[in-house]
TrEMBL record:
Domain of life: Eukaryota
Xref: SUPFAM superfamilies: ARM repeat, RNI-like
Subunit structure: Interacts with the ELOC-ELOB/Elongin BC complex. Part of an E3 ubiquitin ligase complex including ZER1, CUL2 and Elongin BC.
Protein name: Protein zer-1 homolog
A Pfam family: ZER1-like_2nd
Cellular compartments per GO CC: Cul2-RING ubiquitin ligase complex
Domain Zer-1-like leucine-rich repeats region: 196-337
Family: Belongs to the zyg-11 family.
Keyword Transmembrane: no
Segments forming domain Protein zer-1 homolog-like C-terminal: 404-750
Region forming the signal peptide: none
Keywords annotated in UniProt: Acetylation, Leucine-rich repeat, Repeat, Ubl conjugation pathway
Chain segments annotated as transmembrane: none
Length: 750
């Protein structure tokens, strides 16, 4: 199903929701007094659409950095006559008291508030407005919802004061919530009396008390005929707890798992406790005992185990107490216990750390509410992806993406998740991934880069981007990815390895893309950033990959982009060129990249006068003799001079060297090149070369252009013959053959 799901296009509903949220003003709303969003009066939307709008809005605010939240978004749903809400899931800092207040007239059936730390006791009062319809409620991690501002009239006797002068509300209960069946109070603040809070609820079906310490849970038996799911994650248990649980005979899902790193637990699991569960909880289909230490050995001795294929039949179970099960469990949580490594485990799905399947089950089960466990599970997945081969690649990728989106600010998850992504997107898995999935990976990688300045995360994210075809696969986020990389490169203190990868990516991003992209990136400060990097390297007297990539990136970004060429000159690029030439006389790659760039500058007529100094012309003339990188440096130097010569003798505003002397050296250079040279250069257009053909003012420029075309079409005919025809080169060559001023050898070559 993962295979299918990943490649189908988004539903029309999803696309419309996304579009409306990104363009509220142009679709559902208008702006009142230029600030408040108001729904158009003729709009009436059912709950299927409104729920999706709200839930998708929360998702966008959380995972899309470009998306701007609206102060007045929730007020759009204040009137049930035009908009209906039924099931909404709100998370984190996105929601404040006034947002819930705005929708208090809605008949909510399901309200999940996850880690909404900004909600205070004002929102408890708002919850009462939903009491007659609410069936499902989660207040997981809403750590301030039982606090109210201290009343100015002095504190009553029965209130605890916490340091921020907020008072714990003691008198709220679920009185009147007659339909409430599913309740999650995970990570509830200490001091709230859970028993009093819950007593008014007639028939609870599911209760989650994760991370709450209760010495007495006897009150749970009041729902022994209705409770089918109980979660006591990280509650320190005792014999009394176990006796109470054993009375809840309707339970189908029991979770007493714990984080074995979080704190010291006295409780140890025994064979007797597991037997008690199996005997009494006959409807059990899901049990989680992850993180527990077994006090005694519960395993069947291996000689008694039936050999052969692993079996999920309870009768063959390697865990003795589970031989009493009537049928295999749907889910058994054994993460970070010794039991997950046994042979026969009587469950269809097991979370554990033994193999890929168990690890993926763990990530899937714990991502939402237990990032501390999830990050360790992702770390195990990272090892599997790195050392072995992942067999459930799409599922693994999707789970890691979900975890990274869900816990954007959790450092452990960002570090392990970004590292796992690097291995899950590398080339050997390439074939199995759809465009949509790869887009999702890029999105979460960029989110990680944005919200985390941490070195490891930045490096992992940059490395992961290197697994993609650049620029094609990053085209849909082109501006954003460039901004992030330039941001990394502009930081004052830099990690060497990140700098190297980031410059490499920048270079790849401006290679072979349209000019408007190059202009846009130029305006973001690309040219300046590269020149600063070069300046730093020059000061350290090092010519490394960063130095070479930076010049290469400048070569790429100035290609047929006059604005960027001008920026290069304005930011003293020529000064750096001369200094690099002097400091690194032997570095061939560097010389080639620098001259390629100057070739681009020389193609711009308005900028050529700035190259017309004795110093520059002498340098270019001397480089004609260079043997660096085959013919590349000599060829590029000759190209620069060919454009300058094309402006005619009257533009030659210097006494030394003489124009004729330079022309002579150019002829000599061209004649010394091997016409069959393989090339280290890539032309997207011949236009700058072709413009040197129909002119008589500089025969040597004509000859250089003809030589360039002849070499490229004879060595790479498949690539360059069509380009020459497409850009109208053939008639230009024919006309040139008839010109009196053209040299004989040029005509022959033409």
């Amino acid at each position: 199903s993962f295979e299918m799901a990943s490649d189908s296009p988004e539903s029309l509903m999803t696309l419309c929701t996304d579009y409306c949220l990104r363009n509220l003003e142009g679709t559902l709303c208008y702006l009142l007094d230029n600030e408040t969003l108001r729904l158009h009066p003729d709009i009436f939307l059912p709950s299927e659409i409104c729920d999706k709008l709200v839930n998708e809005y929360v998702e966008l605010v959380k995972t899309d950095s470009i998306f701007e939240p609206h102060e007045s978004f929730f007020t759009l749903f204040s009137d049930p006559r035009s908009t209906r809400l039924a099931r909404i899931h709100l998370r984190e800092q996105i929601v404040q008291d006034q947002d819930l207040e705005a929708i208090r007239k809605q008949d909510l059936v399901e309200l999940y508030l996850t880690n909404c730390e900004k909600l205070t006791a004002k929102s408890l009062q708002t919850l009462v407005s939903f009491s007659h319809t609410l069936i499902s409620l989660s207040l997981f991690g809403c750590c301030n919802i039982f606090y109210e501002e201290e009343n100015p009239g002095g504190c009553e006797d029965d209130c605890l004061v916490n340091p921020t002068r907020q008072v714990l509300v003691k008198d709220f209960t679920f009185e009147g919530f007659s339909r409430l069946r599913f309740l999650n109070l995970g990570r509830l603040i200490e001091g709230v009396n859970v028993e009093t809070l819950l007593r008014p609820l007639a028939s609870l079906a599911a209760l989650d008390l994760s991370g709450i310490q209760l010495n007495d849970v006897g009150f749970l038996t009041q729902w022994k005929d209705s409770l089918i799911s109980l979660v006591l994650y990280n509650m320190d248990l005792s014999e009394e707890h176990i006796q109470v649980i054993a009375q809840l005979r309707k339970l189908r899902h029991l979770d007493i798992s714990r984080d074995h790193l979080s704190s010291y637990y006295k409780f140890k699991l025994t064979r007797r406790v597991l037997n008690l569960f199996v005997e009494n909880l006959v409807n059990l289909t899901s049990l989680d005992i992850s993180g527990h230490t077994m006090l005694e050995n519960c395993t069947i001795p291996s000689m008694e185990e039936k050999m052969g294929q692993t079996s999920i039949e309870p009768a063959k179970s390697s865990i003795a107490p589970f031989r009493g099960l009537k049928r295999p469990l749907q889910f058994l949580g054994l993460f970070e216990t010794s039991l997950c490594r046994l042979t026969h485990i009587p469950a269809y799905k097991v979370s554990g750390d033994k193999n890929e399947e168990q690890v993926l089950n763990a990530i899937e089960a714990y991502t939402e509410h237990r990032p501390e466990i999830t990050s360790r599970a992702i770390n195990l997945l990272f090892d599997i992806a790195r050392i072995e081969r992942c067999s459930q690649l799409l599922r693994a990728l999707q789970l890691v993406i979900t975890a990274l989106k869900c816990h954007k600010d959790d450092k452990n998850i960002q570090v392990t998740g970004s590292a796992a992504l690097f291995y899950l997107t590398n080339s050997e898995y390439r074939m199995e991934q759809s465009v949509k999935l790869r887009h999702q990976v890029i999105q979460v990688v960029l989110n990680g880069m944005e919200s985390y300045q941490e070195v490891t995360v930045q490096r992992n994210c940059c490395l992961t981007l290197c697994n993609f075809s650049i620029p094609e696969e990053l085209e849909f986020q082109y501006r954003r990815v460039n901004e992030l990389l330039l941001n990394i490169l502009n930081q004052s203190r830099q990690d060497e390895s990140i700098q190297r990868i980031a410059v490499h990516l920048c270079n790849a991003l401006v290679c072979q893309v349209d000019n408007d992209h190059k202009e846009a990136v130029g305006k973001m400060g690309f040219v300046m950033t590269m020149l600063k990097l070069i300046q730093k390297k020059l000061a350290d007297k090092t010519c490394d990959q960063v130095m070479e990539f930076s010049w290469s990136a400048l070569w790429n970004i100035t290609d047929e982009t006059p604005d960027n060429c001008e920026m290069f000159l304005n930011y003293s690029g020529m000064k750096l060129f001369l200094e690099c030439l002097k400091e690194f006389p032997e570095k061939q790659e560097l010389h080639r990249n620098m001259l390629g760039l100057l070739g681009n500058v020389a193609e711009v007529k308005e900028l050529r006068p700035q190259l017309m100094t004795s110093q520059f012309i002498s340098v270019f003339s001397n480089l004609l003799e260079s043997k660096a990188d085959g013919i590349e440096v000599s060829y590029n130097a000759c190209g620069v001079l060919s454009h300058i010569m094309f402006d005619g003798p009257e533009a030659w505003g210097i006494c030394e060297p003489h124009r004729e002397e330079v022309v002579k050296r150019m002829w000599a250079a061209i004649q010394s090149w091997d016409i069959n040279s393989r090339r280290n250069i890539n032309y997207r257009s011949f236009e700058p070369i072709l413009r040197l053909l129909p002119q008589g003012i500089s025969p040597v420029s004509q000859h250089w252009a003809t030589w360039a075309l002849y070499n490229l079409v004879s060595v790479y005919p498949d690539k360059y013959c069509p380009l020459l025809i497409k850009e109208g080169g053939i008639p230009l060559l024919k006309d040139m053959i008839k010109m009196a001023s053209a040299r004989q050898e040029t005509k022959e070559m033409a």
